[in-house]
Write a structure and sequence with these properties.
- With about 240 residues, the protein is mainly α.
Length: about 240
């Protein structure tokens, strides 16, 4: 791409930075809009926009188009993951949210693993239809996002109460679980952060994790520093 469009390292580097400018500037406004219009509608919109922006890279001809698309990509992408976390929290109570979070993070890692050979294969289309391989890559990789975003507009329910795939008993249980989570959150605000820190330190499960990770952490510090002084400092911090 850089060779075909005659981009210098400075041009490409600025584009990389502009992505984070759009990302940082849009994250909070994106969540405010999500709270206003609802997660399914907003997530469907930004995922579709994400895919259309990715596809638009295939037609760019100048550095200014590259920079503008990088900003737009950051703006759309910034609201995706926070929006997903918010949407999951509207379904799962606090004590059951860990598994859904973990599955999404695992899917991200799996997508990265599968995406590399797929991208390499798409680059082999170089010259097909008179297009460079990188143009085919951008065009095709955006299609699943557009399809997913459009589907989200019609498939995702607003919340668990509107979910047709849940029975009355499931909805009643979720309502009770969410009410309990809200009570616990209110109690946590009353008790204050110091009390919560004390409770966490006194929790035997936290102690078990520290007991398992402590020796490993000390060993890594000794290995990295070549001495036990830093390791003892790390142990002191853990205690």
């Amino acid at each position: 791409m850089n060779r075909d469009l005659r981009f210098s390292a400075e041009t490409y580097g600025l584009g990389s930075g502009l992505f984070f400018l759009g990302y940082s500037a849009s994250m909070i406004p994106s969540q405010l809009v999500l709270m206003r219009v609802g997660a399914p509608r907003w997530l469907g919109f930004i995922v579709t926009g994400w895919g259309l922006t990715a596809m638009s890279f295939s037609a760019m001809r100048s550095k200014h188009q590259f920079w503008a698309l990088r900003v737009c990509l950051g703006m759309f992408e910034s609201g995706a993951f926070p929006g997903m976390w918010h949407y999951l929290n509207s379904f799962y109570p606090a004590d059951a949210i860990t598994l859904p979070y973990s599955l999404i993070e695992a899917a991200v890692g799996l997508a990265n693993v599968a995406g590399a050979p797929l991208a390499a294969g798409l680059l082999l289309l170089d010259g097909t239809g008179g297009w460079a391989g990188w143009r085919w890559l951008f065009l095709i990789e955006g299609v699943p996002s557009v399809a997913t975003g459009i589907a989200m507009l019609y498939v995702l329910p607003k919340d668990f109460a509107a979910a047709t795939f849940l029975g009355a008993a499931d909805k009643a249980w979720l309502a009770q679980a969410h009410a309990a989570s809200k009570r616990h959150a209110a109690e946590a605000e009353v008790r204050g952060p110091l009390r919560l820190l004390y409770d966490a330190a006194a929790n035997p499960q936290v102690g078990n994790v520290g007991g398992l990770l402590g020796p490993w952490l000390i060993g890594r510090v000794v290995e990295a520093t070549g001495g036990y002084a830093a390791a003892l400092q790390a142990l002191g911090l853990m205690l």
